TrEMBL record:
CDD domains: HisKA, PAS. PANTHER family: PAC DOMAIN-CONTAINING PROTEIN (PTHR43304:SF1), PHYTOCHROME-LIKE PROTEIN CPH1 (PTHR43304). Residues 406-621 form the Histidine kinase domain. It comes from the Bacteria. Its EC number is 2.7.13.3. Keywords: Kinase, Phosphoprotein, Transferase. One of its GO terms (molecular function) is kinase activity. This is histidine kinase. It catalyses: ATP + protein L-histidine = ADP + protein N-phospho-L-histidine. Residues 78-131, 212-264 form the PAC domain. It comes from Hymenobacter tibetensis. The lineage of its organism: Bacteria, Pseudomonadati, Bacteroidota, Cytophagia, Cytophagales. Residues 265-336 form the PAS domain.
Amino acid sequence: MREQQLRDILQHMPAGVATLQGPELRYGFVNEAMQAALGGSATEGRPAADPPGCLPDDLLNVMQEVYQRGRPYVAKAYRLPFPGTESEPPRMRYYDIALEPVREGGGPVSGLLLFAVDVTEQEEVRQRTHELAIETRRLDTRLRVLTETVPQITFSVDSSGNYEYVSPQWYYFTGQPPTADLNAMWPLLIHPDDRLRVLYQTDAARTAGNGWSYEYRLRRHDGQYRWVLSRALPEFQAPDKPVFWHGALTEVHDQRELSEALRRGEAELRFLADSIPELIWTATAEGFVDYYNQYSEEYSGLTGKDLGPTGWINLLDPSEQANAARRWVHSIASGEAFEGLFRMRRHDGRYRWHIIRARQLTDARGLRWFGACTDVDDQHRLREVLQTQYDELARTNRDLDTFVYTASHDLKQPLLNLRGLFDELRRSASFDDPQEAQILTMVDDALRQLDLTLQDLAATVQDQRGLSAPAEPLDLRSVAEEVLLGLRAQVQESNAVIELNFELAPTLTYGRANLRSVLHNLLSNAIKFAHPERPAHITVKSHLSATQHPMLTVQDNGMGMILPDVPAPVFQPFARQHPQIGGAGVGIYLVQRIITSRGGHLEVNSTVGEGTAFNIYWFDA
């Protein structure tokens, strides 16, 4: 009966109690607190090591040692993983664990008595206290280091105005020895013109229980007076009763001199702005104009007050004000620069074209806008005249192209008629002349040359119209093979060998018609002007220039040409170096026109009798 009472008492104890029996340390009695600590895995007859991981290995090892040696052991604040419940997540808990060997009748150890007292809250408090102590020492050390290393003089003053503490910087700055009477020396080091004001303001702040912030001149160790900023705040230890003021002295001498220089510079800048014959203005971060130069008032005939915070918008042509206002609001919201061309009313009522620009600047005074309205009315009207003339010239040029194209097309039919009449005359008529064959040959050549000239004229106009073709990504090999397909008859007839190498720069963003015309003219010329003593060998290679821009090289082993002594020769239409070979002399001229019109340039290297190399820089004009 007594044993059952004892089991009931132990069963409901807040501390965990368990008995472990035999060398396997099998659970015997386990109360509720121990079951909760072990997650309900301690069932009677089960070894403490089963299931694995329920108890840490080091605790199991210690339990075996206590069992074998028979010596009790106590572990303070031992961590055990607490499995948790539905309302409490798993976490680590701390226990004071006691292991007592059990002997029956003074014999050998037959088991262990395990006690576990939950001390999690005490241990967490102890650890937190320890962490706070470490953090307090760390912060105290940091505060001391900061106080004694910052380029400021820190101090503490009591309610009577006596200095309780001053940092070492005071002695470095003033040159006073540490033995000097601080309360007596401090007022004497203040500039005589500032001393009375400083003493009064300090005493008034202490009397009112407020902090203070003011500037004065303090004598440095070299006898020079330097401007310093004194700031302090009260420390309250009783309700509404400050007992200390803690503050710092910061040297602001350079800043004051800089501020004075800035004020002088601002006055000079305003004088300069007023002297410029251009509308200059500044605006706040919200976009409201707060300054107009003198010329703005002279131009508009209004004062700065009359112009108001949005005056430059009110001066614009009424049809442009809404658009300008929307763009200005967008710039204010996004920070983007404002720029536009608008008509602005002068004091005589005449509207003149102005370029209005505004940029955002952020400095110590905050965000501001700086703007200017530049009169470009004369340039704008001149540009309109030039644009009209340009449009007229372009229209005339188009009409001329149309005329040339139409004329070349219309002349083809008379040429065909002339050739037919000449063939009929040669078939049906005869005359005795020793130079008959030579004359007939000359007539044929003249007709052929006329036909080629008309074809080249038409091709020239077509290429001229294609100079504005839109650019698109092009595969060089595909376009080159397309051109060679059209030249297949000439290639086969001349037994020409053509090598294509586009590995280093396989693509080009260009006008397709322009690229076809360039390749066609260069390849057809290389075939046409092949050397009579050897088959044509032509290499077409794309690569990158020294500036990493794409370029193309077309090299042949043909007859070559004589070039002038200039780095970049200019080819003229209808200029021919080999008149014995048919052609109108416009192919290279067209190539050069196409390349230069798109921002590139053409370089030519040639040796008579050896060959020619054309280097095309597509975009390196």
